[in-house]
Structures are given as C-alpha cells and as structure tokens.
Design a protein that fits this description.
Helices cover 34% and strands 25% of the residues. The protein is of the alpha+beta class and 243 residues long. Helix 1 crosses helix 3. It has 2 domains: 150 residues, no CATH class; 86 residues. The strands form 2 sheets. Strands 1, 2, 3, 4, 5 and 6 form a 6-stranded antiparallel beta sheet that branches. A 5-stranded mixed beta sheet has the order 7-8-9-10-11, with helices on one face.
C-alpha cells in the first residue's frame, strides 16, 4: 500500500507546487515568492510527520500521516540587503526580526487560528492538498499582496525618518524586543506596528517606555501611542490622560 509519505511527496511534486506556480508564485520544493521589485513576499511549507533530511523532505515513520501548513512573510528587499544574512532570499519559516509582516496562514483564514492539513493513505488523499491550495488562493495570496501594498504606501504620515527609526530599533533589539516596522501618525495618534504579541510582557514593558519617550517630546501631532501587531490587532495603548 502506498504510504502517506509517498503520497505527500507525489502530491507536492505533481500537484501542490505546480498549482502554487500557476497562482503566480515563483519557487520550488518548499519556498515560494511573489515577483516584486521592492519586497520579498514569501510562502513557506512547514511540515510535521517526523525528522527531515537535508532537503527538507519529511522522513518520519512510513506508516504515519504527514501534516503541513504555510508560513507567510513580507520582507523589504532593501532591509534584506542591509542585513546581509545568509542565503539569496529570506526563508519565510525563519524569524529574522526584519520582517514587515509574518503569520501562519491559519491567522488569515476565517477561523483565525493555526490550521494544519493532513495527508493520509486512501482514495481521498488529495483532498487536503486541494483545500490548502484554495486557502492560499483565496486568503494567503491576497493577504501577501495587501501587506506589500500597505507597507509600500503606508496608511498615515510617517513619524520617524529611517535613520531615527533604526536608532530606536537598535535599542529594542538590544532588549530582545522585535523591531518597530512602521511608526505612523493617524488621527492624532502615533501608531507603532511590529511582530509583538499580547502575551509578551517584556515587549509591553519596553514599548511602554518607548511610547512615554515619544510623548515626552511634546509633539502636538499626537497625544496617544498605540501598539499593533502585524495583523493590525490592538495590543497596548499609552494615553497619559487615562493613566
């Protein structure tokens, strides 16, 4: 009987990868990108089912299922060049700290939580592949495009020039806190966006200190500082009048 690992390898080679390329993604094996002159817009295949060989192929127990999902990320090409990290392009499955946005595909699906597809032996083994391709087509790919355009165009007035923002980010990285990806003025508020989570107490403490530093400058263009994650979700607000 054909094993799940054999079916998955066949499905990846003959079905999943060609379908992703047909959607306009470039790449092979397990990393794909959208053609764009200013950004790396990336999709990476993340697999479970046993240890992997050097090529990334799943090599777990032959009779076990294979589970997989996708990581999505957007990195400015200029940031990648300055960082001088190994490899010709970023790997969406690796956190570098220079991404303008990253997420698991489940976060942009209607369920809003981690989603894994499972390949099992049997006549319906391709259902998971078809469903995951549909998820990329209808949700993952549009979100990548939206994030690139959002980063390229911005949603408000830029608050800091690149040099000043880099100085702030150097302090954040020294404190093991993810960098500020955007600092924009929107409706009398300074909106900071970064790859933070509500559960990250260190990030909250450090960013509240950064926010008070911005507020102490007495800039009349804003009176409140808001911190958002890369999906645009509200994390923390620093409002001196409410403290």
């Amino acid at each position: 009987m054909t094993t799940a690992h054999e079916l998955y390898a066949k499905g990846l080679r003959d079905h999943l990868a060609p379908a992703l390329r047909a959607l306009g993604l470039l790449g092979w094996r397990r990393t794909f990108s959208l053609p764009d002159e200013t950004h790396w817009a990336l999709l990476g295949l993340v697999e479970q089912g046993g240890p992997s060989d050097p090529s990334g192929a799943v090599t777990g127990p032959a009779d076990g299922p294979v589970r997989y999902t996708f990581d999505l990320s957007v990195v400015r090409r200029a940031d990648w060049a300055v960082a001088a990290l190994p490899g010709p392009r970023p790997d969406p499955r690796t956190v570098y700290g220079i991404e303008t946005w990253r997420a698991r595909i489940g976060e942009v699906l209607p369920v809003g939580e981690d989603v894994w597809w499972e390949v099992l032996p049997g006549p319906r083994w391709r259902v998971a592949l078809d469903d995951s391709i549909a998820a990329v087509r209808h949700y993952g790919l549009p979100e990548l495009l939206r994030r690139v355009e959002r980063d390229r165009g911005g949603t408000g007035e830029t608050y800091l020039d690149p040099a000043d923002l880099e100085q702030v980010n150097t302090v954040l990285l020294a404190a093991s806190v993810a960098r500020i990806q955007r600092a924009e003025l929107v409706d009398k508020e300074l909106v900071l966006t970064g790859a933070w989570t509500r559960a990250d107490a260190l990030a909250r403490t450090v960013l509240q200190g950064v926010a008070h530093g911005f507020l102490s400058a007495g800039d009349e263009r804003f009176h409140v500082v808001r911190c958002l994650d890369t999906l645009g979700r509200e994390l923390w607000t620093v409002d001196p009048l409410a403290e």
